[in-house]
Automatic annotation (TrEMBL):
Protein name according to UniProt: Carbohydrate sulfotransferase
One of the record's GO cellular component terms: Golgi membrane
PANTHER family: CARBOHYDRATE SULFOTRANSFERASE
GO biological process, one term: carbohydrate biosynthetic process
UniProt superkingdom: Eukaryota
Matches recorded under InterPro entries: Carb_sulfotrans_8-10, Sulfotransferase
Encoding gene per record: EOG090X0C3N
Length: 245
């Protein structure tokens, strides 16, 4: 009986995730496209058959890479240093492990999990304040468990994550953290913008050096690919490679 209930619970979770994903996609499209734009202009050029073939190939490649990774990765060392476990959210009730990736709609997926786990006083994920979903005490992370508990959950819980084209993710991070008027963007301009301008801009003005408010995308990319940045391991999670989260 317990096995049947667990299966039904997982099926329900998968349905909820799928519906929310479609809903979120519609919201993004509505926000991105002009209301009076011709529909045919924004329809994907590829046929459904072509898209299905691409997805099949991607799944095959992901499976092959994961197989190679399993042969090389020492799970004991991962559990011991915990570096790759702090981005994995644990849902005990539904037996889920969600590895969140910043700039891949992780705010909305966290909101959904808050509703699913009963951590919000609403059934509408988008009614939850974004900052509330990122508070450290909202979710329990996998790195908070003992080694034996971690191994059990990795073996028995359903694991999932969402990814995005790396270049699109970089553009999104730049726009969100350097181009918007928000307290978060103010922090990033002060913390990283001033450093980037000082490092990569010739004859930078005093205002730019003191505020870091006008970083260009070219300068941001220079910072990302600079070997000195990589050597300092100075990658914020919003542009850190997905494999390192």
């Amino acid at each position: 009986m317990r096995v049947v209930l667990l299966r039904r619970s997982k099926q329900l979770v998968l349905v909820l995730l799928s519906v929310f994903g479609l809903w979120l996609g519609v919201i993004v499209m509505n926000d991105s496209f002009p209301a009076n734009a011709g529909t045919e202009k924004y329809l994907p050029e590829k046929s459904i058959t072509t898209l299905e073939t691409e997805q099949t190939q991607r799944k095959k490649l992901a499976k092959e890479v994961c197989t190679l990774s399993q042969k090389k990765t020492n799970l004991d060392s991962v559990i011991k240093d915990r570096v790759l476990l702090d981005h994995i959210i644990v849902d005990e009730e539904h037996r889920l492990l969600y590895c969140y990736v910043p700039k891949v709609a992780c705010t909305n997926w966290k909101r959904l999990l808050m509703v699913l786990m009963g951590k919000a006083n609403t059934t509408n994920p988008l009614a939850i304040v974004a900052d509330d979903s990122h508070r450290l005490n909202v979710f329990r992370r996998l790195d908070n468990y003992t080694g034996e508990e971690i191994r059990y959950r990795l073996d028995h819980f359903m694991k999932f994550m969402f990814i995005r084209h790396p270049f699109e993710r970089l553009v999104s991070a730049f726009r969100n953290k350097f181009g918007q008027n928000s307290s978060s963007a103010d922090y990033f301009r002060s913390r990283y913008g001033r450093q980037i301008i000082k490092q990569y801009r010739t004859n930078a003005s005093e205002e730019s050096l003191s505020r870091g408010h006008d970083v260009t995308f070219r300068e941001f990319v220079q910072y990302i690919i600079d070997p000195r940045t990589v050597a300092r391991a100075n990658f914020n999670e919003h542009w850190r490679p997905m494999v390192d989260l």
